[in-house]
Amino acid sequence: MEVHEAAFRLILFCGCSAAAYYFIHASVHKFLENRTLITTSITSPAKMWYPDLTLCVKNTGNIVTKVQDFPHATISQWDLDRIIDDISYPRGEIIKHFSHEWQNGGISDTALNNAYQWKRSIPDPEHSGTCYTFHPSGQNYPGKWYGYYMYIGVPDSALPSGIDRSNEEQVMKAKVNFMAGINIFLHTNNDFLYYREDDMPGNVKIETSLLKYQMETSVTFYQEVISSINKPEAKCADELNYRYRNCVDKLCTEMRDWQEPWYFNPFINKTISYSKDQILQFFRNESYLHGGGEWQFVKDKVFNSKKEWKDKGCYPACNRTSFTLQYTYIPTDTMHIDWWDQKRFDFALSIWAKNFDTLEGQEVYACNSVCLMGEIGGHIGLFLGVSCLSLSEVLFTLLRKSTIMPNAKKLLK
């Protein structure tokens, strides 16, 4: 009987030891692999900053060509503004109405003419056209009436000369084609990047091809805030106040110590150049025009993907915001903004947040050093019945039975 019991104890001890080893090895492997998981929560602030809104319209001419034809060696800011006016559609010609804040029981359209809230720029002389960026002046409550409302009109000068303007179908098709060439972006504050292909961090493009002619296209946005861990296999930028756009713009100006006057980033430590020769020397450079190495990368910057920018050292922020869009359509006779002269618009766009429920994701390590110690201790305790207290008892028992304890007593005497 005693032999059987001893054999059973030995088998049980070996099995438990093997199980403890297996699970401890798995815990150590998980710790060394730096596995992560995302913990999520939903917050609902009462008020929130709306994302900035940027609308870009193709120009009727090229600004570099206009600079080349300028008669003086130095271009003043006043001269530059006149040049941009000459090649671009005025904001008021495209945006017939724009409102944002609810005041005294009605929508205030003063935002359209508030110069302090609008900024004009040309991110890329060849592809972007002129971009108009609106920055909200304060936080807003959720709800449709607190959203952006914009009536967009297609100027008569933008219609092809060969169409029959009395033919409503031809006019409609021409206006729909023009609208498809407009780019509208929602983005985090001061982090606008014009792009044509891949979405950029903090930016989302509203698909203007989905806008319906003489209908209201209602776009509801949902916000997500993700905090990632900067790790070798998935790098992100964890610097305080990091902006993805600043990294991209800095990379695009590495080959010169100045910035173009029609696209100025105040967060880059380079001044604006108003020198005609300096501007033309860069934008008319054969390497820039016909490609090659870094020149080609800068020239094609609006077509570069996030991966290509990452390969150049521009990583998304570890703490970053993204937006998800949902489209619905409202016929003209049931539009919520029918108090305004609807005959003056071709497309109506409303952008709003149904609520401010924000999905917040936090990336954490699946097992850190504290977790590892806890799992090792748990496995040893579960399968072998060993703990710090039981180990101390075993240690003192061994000491009592050895010659160490008696010798210690003799020394104390």
Which keywords apply here?
34% helix; alpha+beta; elongated; 18 strands
Count of β-strands: 18
Q: Please tell me how large the radius of gyration is.
A: 32 Å
Percentage of β-strand residues: 15-25%
Average pLDDT number? 82
Low-confidence stretches: none
Helical/strand content category: alpha+beta
Our count of helices gives: 13
The best one-word shape is elongated
CA distance, first residue to last residue = 47 Å
- How would you characterize the largest beta sheet? 7 strands, mixed
Q: State the share of residues found in helices, binned by percent.
A: 25-40%
Describe what you observe in this structure.
- Helix content is 34%, strand content 22%.
- The chain has 413 residues and is of the alpha+beta class.
- The protein has helices spanning 2-33, 63-69, 77-87, 91-94, 168-180, 244-252, 276-283, 286-290, 293-299, 306-311, 369-384, 388-401, 404-412, and strands at 36-43, 48-49, 52-57, 95-99, 102-103, 106-107, 118-121, 130-134, 139-140, 148-152, 183-187, 203-206, 216-227, 258-259, 271-272, 319-330, 347-352, 358-365.
- The model has no long low-confidence stretch (mean pLDDT 82).
- Strands 1, 4, 10, 13, 16, 17 and 18 form a 7-stranded mixed β-sheet that branches. It has a 5-stranded antiparallel β-sheet with strand order 7-8-3-11-12, with no helix packed on it.
- The protein contains 13 helices and 18 strands.
